[in-house]
């Protein structure tokens, strides 16, 4: 047996390893302890949790802050490893998927100059954007940090304000081309927040704050003094639609990011689903009663496959990722528990942007329609309802992926048409449950408007109400699904327990004809 030679000790390799030691959290005990004392994880701990074991490979690790004009090389290597921005390639969810698992991961390091954006860090970010685009691989960006760093004096000789930086352009231009996730685990202001806002989705912890200007910028502008927690607290921004998913802490943020990414990685071979007859007990037979649409979604979808976006914003519209028989899909649904399921400006914006997201990344859309239509009235028109409502039609008209519409109950007017992708015949498949009812506008409103003079002519109020209810009943009988089906305004009435089967059959026939993601996704 041949004798193994001992590996040769090379001076240059030894020098590299010595330099790499500065990157190890173990070498930065005080900074790490300070971070942990606040209940936070380090940037490297988050990346380790996100990426599959031993799969993360760092890029640009030996950078240091551009401050050689004010500090020694030794101090910069010790105090500003990687210029406060850790970047690299890693695998995510490779135990579940055989392909599409490589991701580009970036994380500002809050233990290094408060996660501020350094001049060299910007160069590294731009390089990562270029690599991710070439690889057609997702980007996961931990963006906690205080914005631009004014102390990088080495660049002051060659730039005035750094306004020629392409970083935000580099990230924004990837909209609709590759999935981009922003994760916020603390304070995120100015340039860091702008990156978050350009992402497809923002996942933020409950204790985080986001703002286009931080406390220092606010005070510098003569606008007063504020604690960072007072500037864009997460619980408030979640209700405004800024934050897509609000989580407890960084550990949950990482797990949610993995789940979000999985919808773009492919189908799952193993799945389970609930007994579909449960829908009978969730949906009341009496059309006047509200119900929880989220329980119906959880029943239709594979178990543990639902991930809702913007749950605290525009609660009358639900937008979620789901799986049916392992296949990833997007879902929009009206919630009758809020505004009776009517679609206002915020709900239209929420659904329109979600349709763009699904279209960009080839995810079919399931629409659960139960709406009396668009919300109307002087107050709502003052929100710019015409423009916002029309966005839903515009986004639907641009869809290249199939949209399957299930008419759950109310399907009235333009709002119902918008939920179906523009019309019931625009949908790749439009199905109605027996509980569905439809018409040009809500039954009650149509009767009051169409029979106004007749009803007013009835002096006795009890008789007037009796006549009104009789007319409503007649209109309902004409418009309920089993009778409306006689006109082929939609495709078929089905038993709710057959819905999953109908969806999988329809999607098995739909050709995938998109070769490259080119869609644009609105920031709103």
How helical, in percent, are the residues?
A: 25-40%
The span between the termini is 68 Å
| Mean of residue pLDDT values | 91
Tell me, what's the shape? elongated
Largest sheet: 8 strands, mixed
Q: Low-confidence parts, pLDDT < 50 over ≥5 residues? A: none
Keywords:
3 domains; seven-stranded mixed beta sheet; alpha/beta; 2-enoyl-CoA Hydratase, Chain A, domain 1; 524 residues; 21 helices; 36% helix; 16% strand; elongated; eight-stranded mixed beta sheet
Describe the fold and architecture.
The structure is a single chain. This protein is an alpha/beta fold and 524 residues long. 36% of the residues lie in helices and 16% in strands. It folds into 3 domains: 23-262, 2-enoyl-CoA Hydratase, Chain A, domain 1 (Alpha-Beta Complex), CATH 3.90.226.10; 278-436 and 480-509, 2-enoyl-CoA Hydratase, Chain A, domain 1; 442-479. The mean pLDDT is 91.
Task: Break the fold down into its secondary structure elements and pairings.
Layout: H1 11-20, H2 29-37, H3 43-50, E1 57-59, H4 73-79, E2 85-91, E3 102-108, H5 119-135, E4 139-142, H6 167-172, E5 180-184, E6 187-189, H7 191-198, E7 201-205, E8 209-211, H8 215-220, H9 234-239, E9 245-247, H10 250-262, H11 278-282, H12 293-300, E10 307-309, E11 317-324, E12 327-334, H13 345-360, E13 365-371, H14 378-381, H15 385-397, E14 403-412, H16 413-419, E15 429-432, E16 437-439, H17 443-450, H18 452-456, H19 461-479, H20 481-484, E17 492-493, H21 499-509
Parallel strand pairs: 3-4, 4-5, 5-7, 6-8, 7-9, 12-13, 13-14, 14-15, 14-16, 15-17
Antiparallel strand pairs: 1-2, 2-3, 10-11, 11-12
């Amino acid at each position: 047996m041949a004798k193994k030679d001992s590996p040769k000790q090379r001076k240059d390799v030894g020098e590299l390893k010595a330099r790499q030691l500065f990157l190890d959290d173990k070498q930065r005990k005080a900074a790490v302890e300070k971070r942990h004392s606040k209940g936070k994880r380090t940037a490297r701990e988050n990346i380790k949790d996100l990426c599959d074991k031993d799969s993360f490979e760092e890029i640009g690790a030996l950078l240091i802050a551009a401050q050689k004009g004010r500090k020694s090389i030794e101090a910069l290597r010790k105090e500003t490893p990687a210029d406060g921005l850790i970047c690299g390639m890693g695998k995510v969810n490779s135990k579940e998927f055989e392909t599409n698992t490589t991701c580009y991961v970036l994380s500002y390091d809050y233990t290094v100059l408060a996660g501020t954006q350094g001049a060299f860090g910007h160069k590294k970010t731009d390089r990562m954007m270029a690599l991710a685009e070439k690889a057609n691989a997702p980007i996961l960006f931990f963006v906690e940090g205080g914005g631009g760093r004014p102390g990088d004096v080495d660049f002051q000789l060659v730039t005035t304000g750094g306004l020629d930086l392409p970083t935000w352009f580099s990230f924004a231009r990837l909209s609709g081309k590759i999935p981009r996730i922003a994760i916020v685990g603390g304070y995120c202001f100015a340039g860091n927040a702008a990156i978050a806002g350009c992402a497809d989705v923002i996942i933020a912890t409950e204790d985080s704050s986001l703002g286009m200007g931080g406390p220092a910028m606010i005070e510098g502008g003569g606008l007063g003094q504020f604690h960072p927690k007072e500037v864009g607290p997460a619980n408030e921004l979640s209700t405004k639609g800024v934050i897509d998913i609000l989580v407890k802490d960084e550990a949950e943020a990482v797990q949610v990011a993995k789940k979000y990414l999985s919808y773009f990685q492919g189908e799952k071979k193993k799945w389970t689903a609930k007994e579909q007859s449960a829908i009978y007990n969730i949906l009341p037979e009496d059309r006047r009663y509200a119900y929880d649409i989220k329980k119906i979604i959880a029943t239709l979808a594979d178990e543990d496959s639902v991930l809702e976006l913007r749950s605290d914003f525009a609660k009358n519209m639900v937008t979620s990722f789901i799986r049916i028989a392992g296949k990833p899909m997007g879902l929009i649904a009206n919630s009758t528990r809020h505004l009776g399921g009517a679609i206002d400006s915020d709900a239209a914006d929420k659904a329109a942007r979600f349709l763009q997201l699904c279209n960009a990344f080839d995810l079919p859309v399931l629409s659960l329609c139960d709406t009396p239509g668009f919300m109307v009235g002087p107050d709502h028109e003052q929100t710019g309802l015409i423009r916002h409502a029309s966005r839903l039609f515009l986004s639907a008209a641009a869809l290249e992926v199939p949209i399957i519409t299930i008419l759950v109950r109310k399907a009235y007017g333009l709002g119902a048409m918008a939920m179906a992708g523009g019309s019931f015949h625009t949908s790749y498949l439009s199905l109605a449950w027996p509980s569905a009812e439809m018409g040009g506008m809500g039954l009650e409103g149509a009767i009051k408007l169409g029979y106004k003079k007749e009803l007013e002519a009835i002096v006795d109020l009890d008789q007037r109400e009796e006549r009104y209810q009789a007319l409503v009943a007649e209109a309902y009988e004409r418009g309920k699904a089993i009778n409306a089906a006689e006109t082929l305004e939609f495709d078929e009435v089905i038993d709710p327990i057959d819905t999953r089967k109908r969806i999988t059959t329809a999607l098995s026939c739909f050709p995938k004809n998109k070769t490259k993601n080119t869609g644009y996704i609105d920031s709103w």
